[in-house]
Specification:
Layout lengths: L1 H37 L174 E6 L5 E4 L10 E8 L6 E7 L4 E6 L9 E8 L1
Antiparallel strand pairs: 1-6, 2-5, 3-6, 4-5
């Protein structure tokens, strides 16, 4: 009986010691885990895993590659309810490159309703485009109400400015198959202004049409005709006129302007004879 009791007591004592050791170990583990939770993790450096939620520093390039085939594959994705991806550098903040495929894109920006790409600079160029053989900046708008390239200056400067350093180069060039190559519009000032201190300010190749010019017929039996040019007539307005007539010995004698009615009257040296035709070609300047 004594031997059995002793053996039972020893086994109970052993179990009690194992329980105490297990409890102690559990307490130590909990203390370690709790302590680790309070320690601020060090930033990852070169060779370390990427750590989320904090800055990661390295002295070499960190690359992310997606080797899956297909042009829709994404190498790196970033999402945020604010800014998805921010790049900052003393040289280039974000640099994008693509293959030599003509349809490939180095950097692409897309927006449902706002700006696809927004460039801001306090002293330099907000957006700068350069191409060795193609277009430095190319704009495309498939809708009638959109603009391929739109420039606006709210500080009194130039909305769109083009420069060419070549002798035979062109600063701004407009091309259209059926519409207008270049259109200038101003509600109250100059629509298109041409300036050249030493060369030719305006040069046209082909026919020139002016809304302030026209051809007015003089009826037979009349020696004068009143013309409404559709523009303002002032005392300083220049009106040029020439006569197209089959009748011999008839010419333009004089011209008067009516600034209140915005018209001018052309007087001929004699009446247009019956069976003859006479027309006054006119051009209003200024």
């Amino acid at each position: 009986m004594g031997t059995k009791a002793t053996t039972a007591e020893a086994m109970a004592s052993a179990r009690s010691r194992r329980a105490l050791l297990a409890a102690a170990a559990g307490g130590v583990a909990a203390t370690v885990v709790s302590g680790l939770g309070r320690v601020n993790p060090a930033s990852a450096s070169t060779g370390d895993p990427f750590i989320l939620g904090q800055n990661n520093q390295a002295d070499a390039v960190t690359g992310v590659q997606n080797v899956a085939t297909g042009s829709t594959q994404i190498g790196l994705g970033a999402f945020s309810f604010g800014t998805g991806l921010v790049g900052q550098g003393f040289g280039v903040g974000v640099y994008g490159t693509s293959t030599i495929d003509v349809d490939s894109i180095g950097v692409k920006g897309e927006s449902r309703a706002g700006r696809g790409v927004n460039g801001i600079s306090y002293s330099g160029a907000g957006v700068h485009g350069k191409s060795e053989l193609g277009n430095g900046i190319s704009g495309l708008a498939p809708s009638y109400g959109g603009n391929g390239v739109y420039g606006e200056n709210t500080g009194g400067g130039v909305g769109v400015y083009g420069v060419s350093a070549s002798v035979a180069g062109i600063g701004v060039y407009g091309d259209a198959t059926h519409g207008s190559g270049v259109v200038g519009n101003s509600e109250n000032d100059i629509g298109v202004q041409a300036i050249s201190p030493n060369g030719t300010a305006l040069q046209a190749q082909g026919r020139v049409a002016f809304s302030t010019s026209g051809l007015e017929s003089v009826p037979a039996g009349a020696s004068q005709v009143t013309i409404a040019p559709g523009t303002t007539i002032q005392a300083t307005t220049i009106v040029l006129c020439t006569l197209e007539c089959s009748q011999v010995g008839i010419s333009i004698e004089r011209l008067t302007k009516d600034t209140s009615a915005n018209t001018f009257k052309v007087f001929l040296s004699k009446k247009v004879a019956s069976g003859e035709s006479a027309k006054v070609a006119w051009f209003v300047i200024g």
